[in-house]
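Example record

One chain of 242 residues, shown exactly as stored in the release files.
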Amino acid sequence: MLSSLLRRRKTSGATLAACFMLPALGLGLCDDNPTVAVRTFELQYLEPGEAMQMVAPYVYAERKGSPGLVTGFNGGITVRETPEALARIAELIELYDRAKPGVRLRFQVIEANGFAERDDRIAEVQAALDELFRFEGYRLLTETPLALMEGTSSSQSFDVDGRQFQIQATLEQVRGSGDRGSVELIVGLGEFGDGYGPSINTTMAVPVGQTVVLGSAKARGRATLILTVRPEFVELSEGNER
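Predicted structure tokens for this chain:
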């Protein structure tokens, strides 16, 4: 009995404290019958489910008398809440309903060992190669670009001395922007024929504007192949990924 009474007092105290603080947020959590309105938000880039999850903290569905409500439809969401909460939701939608960031990935496939002369085309990663590996030399086999938007995948095939290879990439997530941005990639490099699997398969966060070594593998009948990538932010539209 005593413990139950203490719990009720503790809960009551927490609720009372929240009621003093929450009016400043304009969410009307402690008012059983606040003034509410209904507003529809059309979405250009966000999925309705994403938007509903994002605005959920501003929708008080358990309020007695005038509960908040959010519903989704194809191309938007409708929210029933206090005018103050709706204003905050509008700011949130404006901030995040933007075009997904586009990223251009420049891949380099480098062959290692047995090359006395330095290849100027890979000068940007030469120091990293010397630090990571102990081969006698390196040369650029091929360079290929891929343009992706966040949450999309693409691939590019190329020929090396009559043998077919393919790079596959998925742009999982983009963090930040400008020089402080980074991308999370899933990348595979494979050779066609005889069911041969990917020779390189990795997931890695890569800073935008920097060239990073993704991995290395021994190719059939030739020297070791090394894969590098350099991501750059670009403006892309839907359907313009390569």
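Notes: The CA atoms of residues 2 and 144 lie 73 Å apart.
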